Amino acid sequence: MFLVEGNKTIVELQNSDIKVREIFSTEPDLLDGFDAEITRIDHKELHKISQLQHPKDSVALCHIPERRLMENAVFNLVLDGIQDPGNMGTMIRLADWFGIEQIVCSEDSVDVFNPKVIQASMGSFTRVNVVYTSLPEFLQASPNISLGTDMDGDNIYKAAFPENINLIMGNEGNGMRMETRQQLQKRLSIPRFGNQKKTESLNVSVAASIILGEIFSRKVR
Fold first, then answer.
1. Which residue, among 68, 83, 74, has the nearest Cα to 167 in the 3D structure?
2. CA distances from 23 to 11, 36, 44, 61 (A)
3. Among 171, 198, 183, 177, which Cα is nearest to 84's?
4. Contact (Cβ atoms closer than 8 angstroms) between residue 189 and residue 153
5. Residue 58 near residue 25, CB atoms below 8 Å
6. What is the DSSP letter of 99?
7. How many CB atoms are located within 10 Å of the residue 40 CB?
8. DSSP code at position 110
9. How many angstroms separate the CA atoms of 33 and 30, rounded?
10. SS3 for 38?
11. How does pLDDT run across 8-62, given as a tens digit for each residue?
C-alpha cells in the first residue's frame, strides 16, 4: 500500500490504474462521487496520519499497482541510481510533460511510491509507467539508441538525435555507473555559458529538463 495526499492529486487517481482502498478527509464533501470509502477525520487526526509537515485536506490509502516494462516504447527516460525523491518526482513530471510514457529505473533507484516522490510528481505518477530492472540487460536488449551525458560529449544544441531514444541520467553524486556507461551509443554535453570556476555541475533533474527541451524542440521546428 502507499499514500496519496491532497484532493487535487487524489481526484486524478480516478482516471488511472491505481485502486483506492480508503480515503481519510477533513472535507469529504469535496470528493463526492469518488468510487471509494471515505472516512471523515478532523485536522488533528490528519496531522497524525499525514507524511507532510503541513498536511492538506485528505489522505488516500492505495494499492500499489503492478507495472510491467513496455518493450516497444519509442522514448525511455532511464534513471541509474537516482536517490533523491524530489529528483525522481520532478523527472516523472518531466516525462509526463513531454509525453514520455515510460521511465526505466535501476533496481537501487528510489521507490516511485515513496511519499516524497508521490508529492513531488504532482499526479504525474498516474500517467507515466515507472519500472525497475537491470539496466545493462535492458539497454542491451533495447532497439533504441542510448544517449547519456558526458563532459566531452557532443554539444546538445548541435547534436543530431535519433527517433527512438533511451535517455540515461545518472546518480546525483556519482553519475551513471560504468556498466551503464558502456551501453552508451551517443554522448551529450550541456555547454556552460557562465563562470566555469563556480559551477561544477547541474542538478540531474535540471539537466534532464534541458536535454528533453532540446530534443523535443526539434520536433516542432
1. 74
2. 11, 7, 16, 6
3. 171
4. yes
5. yes
6. T
7. 12
8. P
9. 9
10. strand
11. 999 999 989 999 999 999 999 888 878 889 999 999 999 999 988 888 899 999 9
In sequence order, what DSSP letters do the residues of 12-26 get, joined into one string?
A: HGGGSSPPEEEEEES
Q: How far apart are CA 50 and CA 58, in angstroms?
A: 9
Grid look-up 560504468 returns: 178
pTM of the model: 0.92
Task: State percent of the chain over pLDDT 90.
Answer: 80
The alpha carbon of 127 is separated from its chain's Cα centroid by a whole number of angstroms, namely 10
To which residue does cell 547534436 refer? 159
pLDDT band at 147 (very low <50, low <70, confident <90, very high): very high
Q: Which three cell numbers stand for residue 119?
A: 508529492
Length of the chain: 221
Distances (CA, A) of 59 to 40, 49, 145, 211: 11, 8, 41, 35
Residues 110/130, Cβ–Cβ less than 8 Å: no
Cα–Cα distance for residue pair 186/160, rounded to 1 Å = 10
